Amino acid sequence: MDKGLSLPEIVNYCKEYGFIFQSSEVYDGVQAIYDYGHYGSLLKQNVKSEWLKEMVQKHNNIVNIDSSIIMHPMIWKASGHVDNFDDLMIDNKDSKKRYRVDVFFEQLLAEGKISKELFDKCNELVNNNSLEDIYDLFVENNIKCPVSGTCNWTPVRHFNLMFNFRDIDDNTMYLRPETAQGIYVNFLNIQRSTHQKIPFGIAQIGKAFRNEIIARQFTFRMREFEQMEMQFFIKPGEDERVKYYEYWKEQRMNWYVNVLNIPREKLRFKPHDKLAHYAKAAVDIEYEFPFGFKEIEGIHCRGDYDLSNHERYCKKNLHILDPETNESFIPNVIETSCGCDRIILMLLSEFVTNESSDDKQRLVFRINNDLAPIKYAILPLMKKQELTTVARDIYDKMKLKYMCSYDDSGSIGKRYVRNDIIGTPYCVTVDYQTLEDSTVTIRHRDTMEQKRVNVENL
Ligand code: ATP
Known about the structure:
The protein has 458 residues and is of the alpha+beta class. It has 3 domains: 2-71 and 163-350, Bira Bifunctional Protein, Domain 2 (BirA Bifunctional Protein, domain 2); 86-160, Herpes Virus-1, CATH 3.30.40.230; 374-457, 3-Layer(aba) Sandwich (Rossmann fold), CATH 3.40.50.800. 35% of the residues lie in helices and 28% in strands. It has helices at residues 7-16, 38-57, 73-78, 81-84, 101-110, 116-127, 131-140, 180-184, 187-194, 238-259, 305-314, 340-351, 385-398, 412-422, 432-437; strands at residues 2-4, 20-22, 34-36, 62-65, 86-91, 98-100, 157-160, 164-166, 172-174, 200-209, 224-234, 267-271, 281-289, 292-303, 320-322, 327-329, 332-339, 352-357, 360-365, 376-380, 404-406, 426-430, 439-444, 450-454. The protein has a 7-stranded mixed beta sheet, with helices on both faces. Strands 21-20-22-23-24 form a 5-stranded mixed beta sheet, with helices on both faces. A 3-stranded antiparallel beta sheet has the order 1-18-19. Strand 8 (164-166) and strand 9 (172-174) form a beta hairpin. Bound molecules: adenosine-5'-triphosphate. Adenosine-5'-triphosphate is lined by residues 178, 210, 212, 221-222, 225, 227, 295-298, 337-339, 341-342.
């Protein structure tokens, strides 16, 4: 029987096998910040390449950019992030622990500590921004802090999620909480320099930072994370909006199913109950993690909210001219925005498998070949010079084309196990027959079948 791992098992797997580590671990770590090890960073690189291929390489009307993390602070005023990008928080006065109200209630519901009615009531109050009523809800229902066990709460407050700092001239600056704004403020430069006509898109992969209040569920909610976003600029109008919104919803779902091989039944669309300050319509793509269905990507109709606001704040013309109609307008935007780290967590949840059949058991990462961190492991059967020389020679040739590894330590069985665990699709073994007829065995990770092939045909 095959079984995926629980979240604590995934955390252990990531550390043990070099995928993800707690950042600054030797100093006891920093909450919700993580580092990717050798295999994790290669896996991440492959996910980013697949996304770029899907969005930019396959669309002649989508171009790529790499904008800066620190931008003019006025950008975040214009985008609404300074005033509106916040969560509701509450502190327990005894434990000094801070909770994000909606996530705290979600956790209480999952643990069976509150009813669905109370959960829904809380959500309604959060959506209506009724701070005092939320506080009353805590007190009237005797909601206790899990750490102190008391009901001694502060009033509910807004907490802005942007990290800020002061530059040398004492200006307040921000670490970007999304990559999208770097696209909007560059939109005309890019459109002109690449001669794009509406409809067209701009894609970007990059780091984003959010001072998340509740940081848990491993890399699902991080303070420093990577986004893969694409802003698609279209003509204003309801017909265009619906057409491209539906198009991108379908495209993005297909990518998870057809390219990342996630089973369709483990994914779902979830319309937003509450729209973000910029959105006209929004839906999430959710994946069924070991801790339930959760968002991996948002598809948002942002209208002309961002570009109009930038036009107002920067006092420059951000209209685009349609050469056919001679019309000038501010484009509307459909955004697809996914978190690379959540995709990695999804891939680990889906494809790291404990296989057991009869008396055998093995741990295997059944990731597809294009995403696998290492494609080929080149292994001499034993650490004997006549075998290692040939194996090294094969490795030196293959590494020019593929991410390969060479390993001659320990028994061949242990080396197969190690490669199954990190998801290497093929192990190439050099044995004594190789010296006679230039053939090697190729062992396939999923079937464990071995075939003999000529070295020339590798
Ligand atoms: P959530 O509701 O889970 O906080 P969000 O709706 O605020 O997410 P968006 O602003 O739509 O998220 O960001 C787009 C994508 O960026 C999300 O779908 C997610 O994959 C990723 N993302 C957002 N916040 C984080 C985070 N703190 N850690 C990791 N990935 C994140």
